[in-house]
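Students often ask why we bother encoding 3D structure as a string. The short answer is that it lets us treat folding as translation between two languages. Here is a chain of 327 residues written in the first language.
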Amino acid sequence: MKKTMMFVLSVIVLCMVFCSCSKKNDVKTSKPKIAGIVFQEDQFFRLILFGMRDAAEKGGAEFFAANSLNKPDKEMQLVNTYIARKVDAIVISPLSRKASQAAIKRANDKGITIITYNSTIDTDFPASYIESDQFDLGAQTGRAARKYIEENLGGKAKIAILAFKSQVPEQSNQRSDGFKSEVTKLPDVRIVAEQDAWLAEMAVKKCGDILTANPDVNIIWAANEGGTVGSVMAVKNAGKAGRVAVFGTDTSEQLISFLLSEDNILQAITGQRPYEIGSMAVEYALKSLRDEPIEKKVSMPGILLRRDDPQGVKAFEKKLKELIDKG
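And here it is in the second language, the structure alphabet:
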């Protein structure tokens, strides 16, 4: 009886080992299924999807793209859908560090590899987290703004900030802290208003209200693409071109056109590397599935584009257009 039980246990262990090895071999030899989830429809996330798609194609993977549209219930639904489809990996920018955990953990518990990018969750089970260096994005623009204030405003300025704390608070705060760390090195700089406005239409109204309530504001910094676009439009609508300078974050064809325009409103932006982020996220997913080593966290530096360097802006514009046309 004892020998029989030992034999049965041995068979069970061998089966478990065989199944585990078979699953790994299947991933290594079959076509992996990778799901990529974004949460917003803008150029930043479109370029991320282009990078994901190209990396998946290069790596011989089947790729599924989806957008949660900034809705937590939609995000949960998408994750559950990909669990049901039995994808091998989910590459996602979670909407919430805490609220997004449950659905993503279900996927992880089902053996699905999780890679987070742009934003992450308060747990360590994702195989990797790939992001822009958020503090650096703000600090690079802050240095450009400080230089502008010293050279054009005699070292004095009243600044308004448009952020996105109610959307992704940690990321927004890091960018804001980076910007403030540079401009506040000047003793005669005051930050007189801080509001949330991450979509262009929101920012036009918020920035317009700020300019009305604080007519002596002469610098505006926005923490993302929508806020930057809306700030430029609000300054133009208020007839304050040349008197109020805008600095911002992120890049897009529209923002580049603002940098190259003759209205002298947008002075500098610090862009992210969305195509590279998306590409690396999928590459890391595939490496993780093959049990290859990857870094637990990657922070990419930003790219500063300045009005006073039009050739650099045009070179970046050409590269951006090539990526968009390719997509």
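Translate back mentally: The chain is about 50% helix and 20% strand. Keep this in mind for the problem set.
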